[in-house]
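The data layer described in this paper is built around a simple, fixed record for each protein. Because each token names a local backbone shape, the row as a whole describes the fold. We quote a single record here, exactly as it is kept in our systems:

***
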Amino acid sequence: MNSVTERQTVPSLIRYLVKHIHPATHTFLSHKVGDEWVDITYGEALDKIDAISAWFPGYRHKGDKLALIIENGPDFIYYDQALQQIGGVNTSIYPTLSETEIEYILNDSDARTIICGNPFLFRKVLKIANNCPALERIIPAFDDYEKYLEKQRLNAGVIRFKDLISVGLTLVKKYGSDIKIAREAILPSDLSCLIYTSGTTGIPKGVMLTHKNTVENVRVSLLQIPIIEKTDVFLSFLPLSHVFERTATYHVCLYAGAKIAFAQSLELLAKNMGEVKPNVMNCVPRLLERIHDRAMKNGTSAGGVKAKIFLWAPDIGRKYRIANEDGKKSGLLLNSQHALAEKLVFSKIKERTGGNLKIMLSGGGALPKNIGEFFGDLGIKVLEGFGLTETSPVMAVTEVHRQIYGTVGRIVPGIEVAIQNVDTKEIYTIQTHESFKEDFQSEEGEIIVRGHCVMKGYYNKPEETAATIDKDGWLHTGDIGRFYKGNLQITDRLKNMLVNAYGKNIYPTPVENTYLKSPKIESVFLLGDKREYITAFIIPAKEALQEQFGLDETFFEEAEPFIENREIKDWLNQDIRKLSNELAKFERIKNFKIKRTPFSMEEGEITPTMKAKRKVIEKKYVDAIEELYAGDVEAD
């Protein structure tokens, strides 16, 4: 291996592992086949990786874009590693995107091949394949694909993934030395992947991330979280097409030598956690909220003594946590109470996660403070991180020994993060990992960043790149925040800010998070830009609603998007009024409509990362919004 690039490019990481950390016979990946978990060693993975590289015609063309639209699993890893080591560029596509969006990405990137994970995705690609002139090969990663090709005349060739590997195995000996030369010719500055972000407005933009972006981001993140070890097991369920899971599970495990187990699905996640017993998991805030809500429901539904014990335990956990966080020693009585709470309550909740969790890493959105504290009270460490696709992604992450709930942690080494006045562009402060002070606080403004994490730019979009990365190298995140107790704290998105008719600035996220404390509410979409007061679309918690009113599935299948039932409105309004007391008067919801079902990706209302497309929603439901401001105030 070229010592210049050893452990500095994505394909060098696995070779370094086998050379210095684990033997080739050590388990690398695990997935479920039928009813059994099947382990895959590093050696077995490398054989398939080299076979795929050997198959590729014209693999000497460094920089070729090779697309993936495939679920999490070993095949994603094999294909990605194979194309990375011959200088290919991983162009990942969210499986939930429409045919039109897939077509745009394939053409914008000039992708030469695309691997499809299942028949549904294969059929999507077949519909638009002939509109993509650069596309040479479609690779179904499943059997019996031929039936979908009947009466289909394609310009691109089709080869089953298994067949590709079989052919490639016969070519490894012939092309092995060429593959090695190609791998060692890759530089840290070379492009590693294109990740297309749809955002809440506009057409998708291909974020160009280099090998240095990826590897350096992983290295400094592990410096910040040094408790991740080569013996750990990660359970992966978030999509690898997203930068968060790709970096914080896949690439972290490649760097640290940890094992990756792939969950079967979100629906089977709880079952898989019990089977795999992971040490580390990446998650999104909504999953943690659901675990919290279910735990509270299960713990209190029986009433009586059991409910009292359940509610007593977190209170003891909170006192114990605070005592330890402040660096004090908890007393004998509190230690005894905590041991009893652990035995009666905490251990039972932990068993449902497999019982071995050291940490959960939360990203992709703001984690409500009360949810982080709840898990901390149980003794489950939830570390928050922050970043964008454009920042590789990690800019900040919570330190294990210093947790300030409601913040996203300390700035990682090697980058600068500044807070800039939105209007005047004055930079209030520039902070680094080294400048950290536990008592430091700053004014609020836009978060900007520069350093090794910043993307190379948007592919084929120089104007958009220049609008995002200024002449001084600062990438403008579009997020509003400040420093609090030395940690970065996210307030909201700049584009989300509402300005009411009286000129008051309202950031929706903290307001929405206040109302999300209600177990009756699934999500909140705040309205009120240039209006006299705030209103909202409320999506109720489905299970709570069904249980309260005895509703079946047909209720949620009705064509009318909003629920007009007075009893349901009054039921929700009880919590809305109570929680409104925690907010300033101009931030309080004065009227609301209850949306029957959540906003949908298929309807174009949310992005693949579950962010609401404000302009789309406001245009689609314009009549409902006008009704909110025409009728009587509901929630005053």
About this structure: The CA atoms of residues 214 and 392 lie 6 Å apart.
